[in-house]
Amino acid sequence: TSTPPIKHFLQFSDFTRDEFEYVIKRAAIIKRKFKAYEVYHPLVDRTLVMVFEKSSTRTRLSFEAGMHQLGGAAIYLNTRDSQLGRGEPVEDAGQVISRMCDIIMIRTFGQDIIDRFAANSRVPVINGLTNEHHPCQVLADVFTFHEHRGSIAGKTVAWIGDANNMLYSWLQAAEVFGFHLNVATPAGYEMDPSLVSTTRYTRFDNPSDACEGAHLVNTDVWTSMGYEKENAERMKAFDGFIVDEAKMARAASDALFMHCLPAHRGEEVAAEVIDGPQSVVWDEAENRLHVQKALIEYLLLGRIED
Ligand code: CP
Ligand code: NVA
């Protein structure tokens, strides 16, 4: 193996399709090793630092467990217990943290924060969710689609609900992989055009129409982290946007349902859908572990001939 020049994963469009195809292939191999209890320790003595400025269950667990499984160590930092919460400049944090570890994951608010951190980092930085992007989740979701249905290229994916970090990462994925998004967001909660750099989508006012013929129906919470003050107002505006059995019936007969979790049954998704036969939400969650192990391996070791 050879060590590649430092590369970050700050948004989905940072990788080419060829790089994603490599990472997805590795994720499948790494997943098989894990399921077979095969010891695979390519990252002995390597350390991942995880910086969390927002809550997490899946992201923390998958990165921390994943790094241990690869033979390395993971350190958890949050805003409250570190100097980040007391106003240490993010540029200084990037300089200091990156001198003590081999790779960094950050979950924070504005994308500008992770961009400034990465510009000052001597090691690769991975976006574990910002207000604008959640690329690791969409990578896990594309891998999950691939496992269930094969390539996502040329397919139609419906996005029902908020124009949030997940949608912007899905839009970038549509451009990279060559699929189409049908997007239905409520009035007043439309996409921010400055975050959209693809034409591979169609806007729908009616969420049921957006599901027509889709191979995958996708939704997410109506109130993302950091927007809690808008919750009551959002509950009213999003009325009618629940993904229920009637909307799933408009999709292709073999359509999958995805949700990055955590979910709110009775709000953005009906229990019959998320707990029903078309739902692959637990696979999406598990696959965070496998794709992120492949991502870390790629960022630290480059391509492995295997
Ligand atoms: N889907 C996801 O990123 O979950 P957590 O907020 O629990 O990390
Ligand atoms: N859009 C959600 C995703 C949570 C994993 C949020 O940002 O809170």
Automatic annotation (TrEMBL):
One Gene Ontology CC term in the entry: cytoplasm
Function: Reversibly catalyzes the transfer of the carbamoyl group from carbamoyl phosphate (CP) to the N(epsilon) atom of ornithine (ORN) to produce L-citrulline.
Residues that hold L-ornithine according to the record: 165, 220, 224-225
Pfam families: OTCace (PF00185), OTCace_N (PF02729)
Biochemical pathway: Amino-acid biosynthesis; L-arginine biosynthesis; L-arginine from L-ornithine and carbamoyl phosphate: step 1/3
Ranges for domain Aspartate/ornithine carbamoyltransferase Asp/Orn-binding: 154-298
Domain Aspartate/ornithine carbamoyltransferase carbamoyl-P binding: residue ranges: 7-147
Name by which UniProt lists this protein: Ornithine carbamoyltransferase
One function term, GO molecular function aspect: ornithine carbamoyltransferase activity
GO annotation (BP), single: L-arginine biosynthetic process via ornithine
Enzyme class: transferase
Reactions accelerated catalytically: carbamoyl phosphate + L-ornithine = L-citrulline + phosphate + H(+)
Record-listed E.C. numbers: 2.1.3.3
Keyword line: Cytoplasm, Transferase
NADP among keywords: no
Biological source species: Massilia aurea
Location within or outside the cell: Cytoplasm
NCBIfam families, per the entry: orni_carb_tr (TIGR00658), PRK00779.1 (NF001986)
HAMAP family: OTCase (MF_01109)
Family: Belongs to the aspartate/ornithine carbamoyltransferase superfamily. OTCase family.
Main localization of the protein described in the UniProt heading: cytoplasm
